[in-house]
From TrEMBL:
<keyword id="KW-0560">Oxidoreductase</keyword>
<dbReference type="InterPro" id="IPR016162">
    <property type="entry name" value="Ald_DH_N"/>
</dbReference>
<dbReference type="InterPro" id="IPR015590">
    <property type="entry name" value="Aldehyde_DH_dom"/>
</dbReference>
<dbReference type="InterPro" id="IPR050740">
    <property type="entry name" value="Aldehyde_DH_Superfamily"/>
</dbReference>
<feature type="domain" description="Aldehyde dehydrogenase">
    <location>
        <begin position="29"/>
        <end position="490"/>
    </location>
</feature>
<dbReference type="InterPro" id="IPR016160">
    <property type="entry name" value="Ald_DH_CS_CYS"/>
</dbReference>
<dbReference type="InterPro" id="IPR016163">
    <property type="entry name" value="Ald_DH_C"/>
</dbReference>
<dbReference type="GO" id="GO:0036243">
    <property type="term" value="F:succinate-semialdehyde dehydrogenase (NADP+) activity"/>
</dbReference>
<dbReference type="GO" id="GO:0009450">
    <property type="term" value="P:gamma-aminobutyric acid catabolic process"/>
</dbReference>
<feature type="active site">
    <location>
        <position position="268"/>
    </location>
</feature>
<dbReference type="GO" id="GO:0004777">
    <property type="term" value="F:succinate-semialdehyde dehydrogenase (NAD+) activity"/>
</dbReference>
<dbReference type="Pfam" id="PF00171">
    <property type="entry name" value="Aldedh"/>
</dbReference>
<protein>
    <submittedName>
        <fullName>Succinate-semialdehyde dehydrogenase/glutarate-semialdehyde dehydrogenase</fullName>
        <ecNumber>1.2.1.16</ecNumber>
        <ecNumber>1.2.1.20</ecNumber>
        <ecNumber>1.2.1.79</ecNumber>
    </submittedName>
</protein>
<comment type="similarity">
    <text>Belongs to the aldehyde dehydrogenase family.</text>
</comment>
<dbReference type="InterPro" id="IPR029510">
    <property type="entry name" value="Ald_DH_CS_GLU"/>
</dbReference>
<dbReference type="InterPro" id="IPR016161">
    <property type="entry name" value="Ald_DH/histidinol_DH"/>
</dbReference>
<dbReference type="GO" id="GO:0102810">
    <property type="term" value="F:glutarate-semialdehyde dehydrogenase (NADP+) activity"/>
</dbReference>
Amino acid sequence: MTTAIGDVITSRIQDRTLLRTDAFVDGGWVGSDSGARFPVLDPGTGELLAEVPRLGRAETARAIEAARLALPGWRARTAVDRSGILRRWADLIRSHVDDIATILTAEQGKPFPEACGEVLYSAAFLDWFAEEGRRVYGDVIPSNSAAERIIVLKQSVGVVGGITPWNLPAAMITRKAAPALAAGCALVLKPAEQTPLTALALAELGLRAGVPPGVLNIVTGAAEDAPEIGRELTDNPVVRKLSFTGSTEVGRLLMRQCADGIKKVSLELGGNAAFIVFDDADPELAVEGIFSAKYRNAGQICTAANRILVQDGILERFTEALLRRTRAVRVGTGFTDGVEMGPLIDDQGLRKVQRHVADLVEHGGQVLTGGRPDERGGTFFEPTVITGLSTESLAWREETFGPVAAIRSFATEDEAITLANDSEYGLVAYLYSHNLGRIWRTAEAIETGMIAVNTGRVSGEQAPFGGIKQSGIGREGSKYGLDEWLEIKYLNLAGLDR
């Protein structure tokens, strides 16, 4: 069964076979048992884009069974064979970048050029793990006995589950699917209810690339269905690992649910990044970093700069430069030429940003620009700069997940480190300085899994992405990210003296 697709997509897309509105299970397009569907909306206009199936536990269980049956054949293929399929998938994504980006912008809201960049980033994960999958090395360990050899093998975890967020609906799919499939796992994945169309389009291209039936399954569901789908992924004994990207609150819940089955977990959770600007930094360079680490995707990224800490000696120059740049930001729908920032994802996200701004002001903050919903209405919010960030404010303790740059000054290096570490989260921190000794001291002292120095970007398929403390467990990307989908098996080979 298919449903009509909104004009915002159909008027722009070339390959309409990418517009899938059914779930993807066992190599085919399926609906829910009840026939129920839920709407997918354009966050910029509120227009109905499509309706997709509301799957639940029973349908998820069938997807898991399809993965179980597909696993032996997929795991038995050579790494070179799996690599070829992943590379073809990446090539297909690149050849359809505009179409996938059109779908992504329509359902997520980010500017079209930014969406194109994300789609290419999603292909990069497939390229990377297509090659890393060919480098799953074991070991031969010297034994205490001349008659024995100790051998270590690495094998796929088996059937695995994944749950991805709405803010990067293409990249987060392949950041899990690429290493899982490269390792020889079979994957059942639930995309966010706000952005299922991008996931389904990627699944269509995976099918064309030769991913066998059951190796990749996409189960869709509304917000109300997520607990049941998640429960099946965590309770079903066939699933041996769960990878989740999303809020710390939900990550805690999923980890508890996985405990009874002793499942492996990878959790990429919330962030509360400190963005530290020392007084020997270039203020213009730091401001450009803010636009990567704060205003990109309207601030709706886990690596967003949430607490901007600026040393006293550079505070005035930095704030003036940030204000100039912020006031020049063009806000609008993602398909409008020249737009740098789109809408927030939904009304809930808008209300949270409004609540954080009001709380910042209540705790002594001063709004220098923005601070309110954009005149376009809907879920658009003005790019905002606020000084006087209080350690008692909501924005100090929680991700704002919106375009609010909240600034606090500091006097010394030690104070900056103390402030940066004053968080239960530990995903990423940003440092701006030209003093190499200071960079080393600060980077080593800050409690995060990633540090970006003199840049606002930290993600890359070749780098290990992940955090510590309440920001998660495990790493995605890089050679380390492949190990998350592998188990170690030890063989003691005896009788070699006969």
